[in-house]
Amino acid sequence: MSIDKAAARDVKRRVHYFSTLKQRQQKIVVVTAYDYPTALAADAAGADAILVGDSLGMVALGFDSTIPVTVDMMVHHTAAVRRGSKLAFLIADLPFLSYKTSSAQAMETVARLMQEGGAEAVKMEGGQEIADIVRRVVDAGVPVMGHVGLTPQSVHKLGGYRVQGRSDDSAETIRRDALSLQEAGVFSIVLEAIDPTLAKQLSEELTVPTIGIGASRHCDGQVLVISDLAGMLPASPPKFAKQYANLHEQMTQAIRTYAQEVREAEFPTDRNEY
Ligand code: KIV
Fold first, then answer.
1. What DSSP string describes 16-37?
2. 215 lines ligand 1 (CB under 6 A)
3. Where do the structural domains in the chain lie, given as residue ranges?
4. What architecture is domain 8-245?
5. pLDDT per residue over 219-244, tens digit each?
6. Model pTM score
């Protein structure tokens, strides 16, 4: 069966689907979700994977960075997405400092996201410095997605949300980070906000698929944050994203119309009675 047919049919995506798509040079589609209705929509639309990203802190919970996101929050939202998704491969982020202290700490966090949240894989931000921890988690039987370039949990170290890999030194560090993660056994790597030339080079050099966000069309797949894609917030989406709908505007208009009808006693009518 071709990948196209698999994508069109209700086929459960599993970890090997990622490498199959890369081998066939077919793009991988990943979207973030944090709740049950979005998971239902992502599944119905045929997304290959859903990422319960810790971006949830910023776009669903209103924090100004991902740093306040806790393991409890990730478990709560991953479980909601799990209830809505049957087909997409379900990946959950390990939040700030919940996995970098030791592999024992990482294992505990992974266990909660998989046992209580229903995740099928986890994502970790970082490179060479977390390679040993990644290897231990992979050896324990857990698919791990890497994440290099702009790593939002390190926003204060990076000095803001800025494109990475523009200097030769920075590009070489990102390359080494990605290679060490591949060596440690990750099944794919998110490249966030990196120079397009570096994204192309890495996507060609790595055997595991690269999933880009603000990292050019050269990546093996793309991930977008659902609120950017669907226009769920009043602010304009970042330049690297594309907005395919304006749900904030539609929802505001729906509430406005409802408010007006309640105030004018047009809703409810007899037809809305039990
Ligand atoms: O938290 C998140 O949504 C992410 C993606 C932007 C890759 O890490």
1. HHHHHHHHTT--EEEEE--SHH
2. no
3. 8-245
4. Alpha-Beta Barrel (3.20)
5. 999 999 999 999 999 999 999 999 99
6. 0.96
